Amino acid sequence: MLFSEQNYRREEFGGSIEVICGSMFSGKTEELLRRLRRAQIAKLTVEIFKPKTDTRYDEMLIVSHDLNSIQSTPVETSSSILLLSPDTQVVGIDEAQFFDEDLPEVCNKLAQKGIRVIVAGLDMDFMGKPFGPVPALMAIAELVTKVNAVCVRCGCPAMYSFRTATSEAKILLGEKDSYEPRCRRCFHLP
Ligand SMILES: Nc1ncnc2c1ncn2[C@@H]1O[C@H](COP(=O)(O)OP(=O)(O)O)[C@@H](O)[C@H]1O
Ligand SMILES: Cc1cn([C@H]2C[C@H](O)[C@@H](COP(=O)(O)O)O2)c(=O)[nH]c1=O
Ligand SMILES: [Zn+2]
């Protein structure tokens, strides 16, 4: 049977890592919220984390660009995620690109304990380069879902986050004020 989120069966597979990646505006957070809400409906014990540095829409909530939201625990380091309550069955993590390099090992430890770990994050930065721990997480995940936005230039599927702001810093929080999703043909380096 094909392994996908739809036919994922906890009792058969035990713990696992799912990665949702893609450009900005590609629906990563919406997809993360959908999976976490289904877990909550199934009455599983769910804990949700984001990096403390992600204060873009809210300090505590994870908020999508469509302003759907879910409560989360902001943490400074990935190792803090391991302090979760022992009855946790599902862990959600957003903005994974901002976490330290230990995040893959932290997720591995959780999955080994039988926890379903769902991680969302940018796979590439504004230079089109692999971003933080996300590529390493993709390598060790059971399931990787790469989602696309719509290119603002031509309407094709977009996998790049083009920075319209002038900053060259790797980390620059923002949304439509500073970034636009673009396809391979319309993306170029700043
Ligand atoms: N160019 C675009 N392409 C796709 N979705 C867009 C675009 N601009 C705005 N959106 C909105 O962004 C939403 C996705 O938001 P979100 O899940 O927060 O994305 P991500 O977490 O990948 O940045 C879409 O449902 C759509 O309403
Ligand atoms: C490409 C890129 C993005 N960022 C920042 C901008 C946003 O605050 C987040 C991404 O949020 P989303 O949920 O995926 O829309 O990351 C950055 O700091 N550096 C970059 O290169
Ligand atoms: Zn395009």
Summary, kept brief:
Helix content is 18%, strand content 26%. The chain is an alpha/beta fold. Strands 5-2-6-7-1-8 form a 6-stranded parallel sheet, sandwiched between helices. Strands 3-4 form a two-stranded antiparallel ribbon. A two-stranded antiparallel ribbon has the order 9-10.
Furnish the topology, listing elements before pairings.
Elements lengths: L9 H4 L2 E7 L5 H14 L4 E6 L9 E3 L5 E3 L1 E3 L14 E4 L9 H10 L3 E7 L11 H7 L2 E5 L1 E2 L6 E2 L1 E4 L15 E4 L8
Parallel strand pairs: 1-7, 1-8, 2-5, 2-6, 6-7
Antiparallel strand pairs: 3-4, 9-10, 11-12
The protein binds adenosine-5'-diphosphate, ligand LXEULUCI and zinc ion.
Amount of beta strand: 25-35%
Please provide the ordered H/E string of secondary-structure elements: HEHEEEEEHEHEEEEE
Tell me the number of strands: 12
- Assign the CATH class of one domain: Alpha Beta
Oligomer: single chain
